[in-house]
Amino acid sequence: MSLRIAFAASNAPIAQAARESLTRQYGDHNELGADVIVALGGDGFMLHTLHRTQSLSVPVYGMNRGTVGFLMNEYSDHGLVERLEAAEEAVINPLSMNAVTIDGTVHRELAINEVSLLRAGPQTARLRISVDGRLRMAELVCDGALVATPAGSTAYNYSAHGPILPIGSDVLALTAVAAFRPRRWRGALLPSTAEVRFEVLDPGKRPVMAEADARAVRDVVQVDIRSEPSIKHRVMFDPDHGLEERLIQEQFV
C-alpha cells in the first residue's frame, strides 16, 4: 500500500510553490486518513500544524520553506516517500498553561516550546515563583521568565541564556529574562513532573502578559504551568538529523 501523504503549507509564496510541486508528484490526501502530514514552512508554521492536528495522532514531517527551521528537515521535492519511510520519530509532550487575568478570567493554552511571562509596560515585572506548592523565590524582578520543554530549549529559552536540554531528559528549564534582582539568577532545572506557579506582584502598576507558543494573554495575575503527558506530538526527522542530534549540535556552535 502506498504512503498516504497530506500536505500543509504556510502562506509564504515559497511554501505554496513547494506544496504545488509536491502534490503534483505525490498526490494529496485528507489529513483524517493520512499516514503522515508534511508541513512546509518554518518553525512557526510547524508549531501551528502540530497544535492544529494534535487530536489526529498522525506524525508530522516538516520541510523548511521558512526563515527558521530547527524543527524542520531540509527541503527537496525528490525521493520524499523514501525519506518518510526512513525517518525517525520523536515524541514531544507540550506544556499546559492556566493563566488568570485581573478580572478573574482563566485562559488555558498548550505550548510545545515554552510558556513565557513578559512585562507589558515600561517597568520591570515582579514575580513570585512556587514549584509543586512550595515557595522557591519570593520576588524576581525581571523583564520576564519562562518555562521551556526540551524541544523548545533552543528557541526563546536559549536566547535568554537558558540551557539546552536533551530531548529525553525529562527536565524543564525555568529561565529568567534579564533578571535585575537577584541580578545573577539565571534560572533552574526542574523535573518534567514539576508544577510551576508564577504570581504577579503589583499587576496594576507593573502589568505582565503570558504567552504559550506566541498565543498571548494580557494582564495576568497568576500562571500555572505543567507538562501534559497525555498529549503526544509525533515529529519525524531524517536519519542522523533527529531532534536529539540537533540539540547536541546546537551546543557546539
TrEMBL record:
What is the name of this protein?
NAD kinase
Q: Which HAMAP family match?
A: NAD_kinase
The main location class comes to: cytoplasm
Catalytic positions are 43
User: What family, per the record?
Assistant: Belongs to the NAD kinase family.
Phylogenetic placement of the source organism: Bacteria, Pseudomonadati, Pseudomonadota, Alphaproteobacteria, Rhodobacterales
Query: What is the organism field in this record?
Result: Puniceibacterium sediminis
Q: Which NCBIfam families match?
A: PRK04761.1
The UniProt catalytic activity note for this protein reads: NAD(+) + ATP = ADP + NADP(+) + H(+)
Q: What does this protein do?
A: Involved in the regulation of the intracellular balance of NAD and NADP, and is a key enzyme in the biosynthesis of NADP. Catalyzes specifically the phosphorylation on 2'-hydroxyl of the adenosine moiety of NAD to yield NADP.
EC number in record: 2.7.1.23
The cofactor required is: a divalent metal cation
GO annotation, biological process: NAD+ metabolic process; NADP+ biosynthetic process
